[in-house]
Amino acid sequence: MPDTKTAWKRLQRNKGAVAGLLVITIAVIISVVAYLIAPDPTPDANRMVLEIEGQHPGFRIAMLAMKKEQPVPRVSFFHRLLYGQESDVTWTPVRSWQFADSILIIQHYADETTSQEERYPLDEIWYGRKTATHAPWAQLRENISRERLFKQTYWLGTDKFGRDILSRLLVGTRVSLGVGCIAVIISLSIGVLLGALAGYFAGRTDDVIMWLVNVVWSMPTLLVVFALTLALGKGFWQVFIAVGLTMWVGVARIIRGQIMSLRQLEFVEAARALGYGHLRIIVKHILPNIMGPVMVVAAGNFATAIVVEAGLSFLGVGVQPPQPSWGLMIKENYNFIITHNPLLALAPGVAIMLLVLAFNLLGNGLRDALDVRSKI
Known about the structure:
Blueprint: H1 4-13, H2 15-37, E1 59-67, H3 77-83, E2 89-100, E3 103-109, E4 115-121, H4 122-127, H5 137-147, E5 149-154, H6 165-201, H7 203-218, H8 221-232, H9 236-244, H10 248-262, H11 266-273, H12 278-286, H13 291-315, H14 326-333, H15 343-369
Antiparallel strand pairs: 1-2, 1-5, 2-3, 3-4
């Protein structure tokens, strides 16, 4: 295995790996600040405006934001960063509006061809309730025109519930990266442990562990995930654990093969001659020399976990609504593919493809960069 500086230089020369690393870095940044940059910063980007369901990308419409009657508590910056902020207004799409003394008259947008006239007292719009005394109507009209009536653009359109696709796509990045991260941690923890034991001790230990590996390997991945999901329940963390528990067998086989090729080498024999224990030899001397293959298989498992999670969510046993997941977004909007707006389902599909491709390119780049026989 080359040293870190040499490996990094080789990786930098691989344009595909650099592009993959750039895409992954952007995805990580987006997942962290999703609620700060999303047009819909409400929890799970779940603001529904049913009148504008299934709209095309770039759809633009005027909105009336009416203050809710019940006050919404403000949350801290970190809570907003993690979970979003519940909105204190309700949105009503409008075609046109005009003021008449203390009343706002709007043409409520119903669909592309239909609208309905509605009248709202200005104090109800601004305060969420009627005021006990006469309000300064001129000032209210100015405030409402400036802060409660605005144009909203849906850059990627809206889904069948009238939610912003772009916002849900941004927030959904967290699920894809989260399931990949947790799955890789679980699969590496189990796979490295069992693979190291099988490869180092060989004999009966190897036979028992490889029997278990072959049994698990023979089961279809999706069926195992279904069984674990049904046992653990449907939900955010359950699908992470279920995906991780199905991916350790490949890691175990690779680690076993690598350790078997190293266990008889001189530096391992020297460590045994010095009286070092088995644990120290495995952890301090063998595992550092096989980190290259481990990093490559981790990148591959990350990509696989993203695809498996998307498939589970599409089938309804993964992340549950209203939490946004790319696979769930495809499930909710796939009927638009054969109708008038295919991008609603294609957008999350393209996002999955780009992120999986990025991890595969990075994995290939790591494989070449960590190969001591490479001349790159």
